[in-house]
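chain below, 510 aa
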Amino acid sequence: MVSPARLLVSPIPLAMTAAPAFALHPDRFFDAEPSVRRAARTLYEEMRGLPLVCPHGHVDPSLLSEDRAFPEPAALLITPDHYLFRMLFSQGVSMESLGVPTRDPKAAIERDPRKVWRIFAANYHLFRGTPSRAWLDYELHELFGVRERLGADSADRIYDQIDERLKSAEFKPRALFGRFNIEVLATTDAATDDLPHHRTIRESGWNGRVVPTFRPDALFRLAAPTWRGELAALERVHGASIGGFTEFRDALVARRAMFRSLGATATDHAVEEPYTERLSPDAVDALFAKALRGDAEAADQKRFEAHMLMEMAQMSVDDGLVMQLHPGSLRDHNSQLFARFGPDKGADIPLRTEYTRNLRAMLDAFGSDPRFRIVLFTLDETTYSRELAPLAGHYPAVRLGPAWWFHDSVEGMTRYRQLTTETAGIYNTAGFNDDTRAFCSIPARHDLARRVDANWLGGLVARHVIEMDEARAMGRALAYELARETYKFDVASAPASAGPRHSVLAGATA
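prediction:
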């Protein structure tokens, strides 16, 4: 049973016809072997209260600039989460019934959030054993004080309980930001975004640290039908026309400087294949001119993207922004779903990915440069020990990103540690990031990661691979220090703190 001191809120009394009782075991996700569990418990208690460093995610910055109350439970927990869409869709639940907006604003979708919630609750059993279940259980129990199991019978009571909480001032986004003990939160923003919400946050006097991340992917997709529109958007924010590659590159340099002025420390790049190639000036000029004529093809785009990764690496050497590379996802695999609902609806599927040859041009040029840092992610676990750990274990510029997306789970994070540590150690990794759009899931995701890492370290202690004092230092690094160091979050440049903040993870002042 969880002690009352750890609860964020006390539960609202439930109706007499309650569903089965719901509690979170304090040793959840720890090994059943007693010596490992004891060590894991001790390590976790020291990790759980550390501040949250969130260097990569997709929270909408307007949430924190406007500090508007969350509308209701379905919009908070279901609508922004494609992890939930994909599981329900796979079992025949229509996107329309979940209230997911379509490209056609006149299309018939469910408008009643309570009905959406009921469908979700009736299908909650589908998430047993998944990380989504672990995160949602944490949110329901620790954040909203729910003490009965979510299901069809309890759906309305739990909806009302959460809805009541959301109407209070302590559940507005900025209040939760402090309660979650977030030290810094990075959003992900298009290179053409003028970042009005980040400006508002900076000018508001609020002490929360929210920074943008520069993502230029759409500008590199020369063969996409949307490219000319993206280029026009770049011209608007840059304030000048772009008639050739030199002007294009100059505009990107200027945009990166603007992002840095608002606190950015990183860039982000999503590609199907992490191919890098340095093109000659004449070749890249010709590709860009071909795109301006509307004649660029898929092969042209591949070469241009490969060259632009080299350009981004050079710019990172020049301006210090940390480069993140997220390859290996075939986006919008379900073309019918994409046509009706648009991107990011749970239909992205992992690809086999090769790093050693593809990244050789970039790492040969910049991998040993102390001014350059690149964080590599993967959806292909077969690359952990064969390619990624050896690359990070050699090149000073390379850090390994945490287990990502489909592998952001108990078993996935454990495999990541097992397959990378013996070659790269932990200090060539980037700690943890939550990579979420769902703001209220942030502490849940960090808590799960800290429990998994504590358990993994406990196993090393129990087998006498490391001593307990070493495990303590490693636990603090994995939970806090590595992300902070990798992404160059300097406390001196952070807003002054208004005082101690309560942590959902810690259950006490951190």
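The radius of gyration is 23 Å. The chain has two domains: 4-13+22-67+179-493, 69-171.
thats it, cya
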